[in-house]
TrEMBL record:
Tagged with keyword Zinc: yes
Keyword Cytoplasm: yes
Gene3D superfamilies: Hsp33 domain, HSP33 redox switch-like
Family: Belongs to the HSP33 family.
GO biological processes: protein refolding
Record GO terms (molecular function): protein folding chaperone; unfolded protein binding
Originating gene: hslO
Protein name: 33 kDa chaperonin
Location of this chain's protein in the cell: Cytoplasm
CDD domains named in the record: Hsp33
GO cellular component assignments: cytoplasm
Length: 304
């Protein structure tokens, strides 16, 4: 089961998040039909979004956009609280067919696919308040380093972030997840040096994800102790698309285009980019949408 583990370590001086996201990323990759390098980028972005959502209790939803100059195009990941208290996540990449040769160390070349130059955008939907949007330049395109740089420069949170996705020979996601460590206020100085030394010796994230017992074994490798775990939150793939949202997309066509589509006598289909669910609107529904758009425009003119 995918889950987010939140705890403290090193005498309560370090906040620790450890995330297993294998099933969630596997389902997202299946929907988007990604090749291995694209799957790795997708999974890392989704892991970053979930980690950040877990650490930002005041946000209803997190939207992460990575726009690099690599061939993969834009990478999008969303994370949000579900009514049952679990964390939901979804994601997509602009060009899921991209698959680059491995790097010299045998790892998937996520940085080459994403690009070394570009922007990381993080948007938070705040409960009962205006949305917040922060940006930071990409530093490597590997996503974990980029997310840590965003946290430091945009939110002044010095952090250690590790994200990883292991893709099997048949292109399915075998392991996915990550961790986020950051000193609590007042404990930054010496503890950062301790963390950096430990993390230099830590194994890859995908190795940590397969160690048992989880997450204690992962914490042991990261900070030298099993950690004190406060909460465990289930995580699952969840898409927020709906017929109403699909209809709002069609309304952007305007009444004239909607009437023309209806006159062709064929239904119009809207397909969700995250889960590939199809929403079909027959000609009668298109005409109703056109009338609704026209009525809304007339009401707007009456109010001016």
């Amino acid at each position: 089961m995918d889950a987010l583990y939140r705890g403290l370590a090193l005498d309560g001086r370090v906040r620790l998040f450890v995330l297993r996201l294998t099933e969630t990323v596997r389902e997202a990759a299946r929907h988007v039909e990604t090749r291995p390098t694209a799957s790795a980028a997708l999974g890392r972005a989704m892991a970053a979004a979930v980690l950040y959502a877990a650490g930002t209790k005041t946000a209803d939803a997190i939207h992460l956009l990575i726009a690099g100059d690599g061939p993969l195009g834009r990478v999008v990941a969303d994370a949000f609280r579900l009514p049952d208290g679990a964390l939901g996540a979804r994601g997509l990449v602009e060009r899921p067919e991209i698959d680059l040769p491995p790097r010299s160390d045998g790892k998937l070349d996520v940085g080459g696919a994403v690009g070394r130059r570009g922007t990381l955008v993080v948007a938070r939907e705040l409960a009962g308040g205006p949305p917040y949007r922060g940006t930071a330049p990409l530093v490597s395109g590997e996503i974990g380093e980029d997310f840590a740089f965003y946290l430091l420069t945009s939110e002044q949170i010095p952090s250690a972030v590790g994200l990883g996705v292991l893709v099997a020979g048949d292109h399915t996601v075998e392991a996915a997840g990550g961790f986020w460590l950051h000193p609590l206020p007042g404990a930054e100085g010496e503890i950062l040096e301790v963390l950096e030394a430990r993390l230099r010796e830590a194994p890859p994230v995908t190795t940590l994800l397969r160690r048992t017992p989880f997450p204690e074994a992962a914490a042991q490798a990261l900070v030298g102790e099993a950690g004190h775990w406060e909460t465990v939150e289930p995580v699952r793939f969840y898409c927020t698309c709906s017929e109403a949202k699909a209809a709002r997309t069609l309304r952007l066509l305007g009444p004239k285009a909607l009437v023309e589509e209806a006159a062709r006598g064929r239904p119009l289909e809207v397909r969700c980019g995250f889960c590939r669910r199809r929403y079909t609107f027959p000609p009668a529904a298109l005409r109703r949408l056109a009338e609704a758009v026209r009525s809304g425009a007339e009401e707007g003119r009456d109010e001016t």
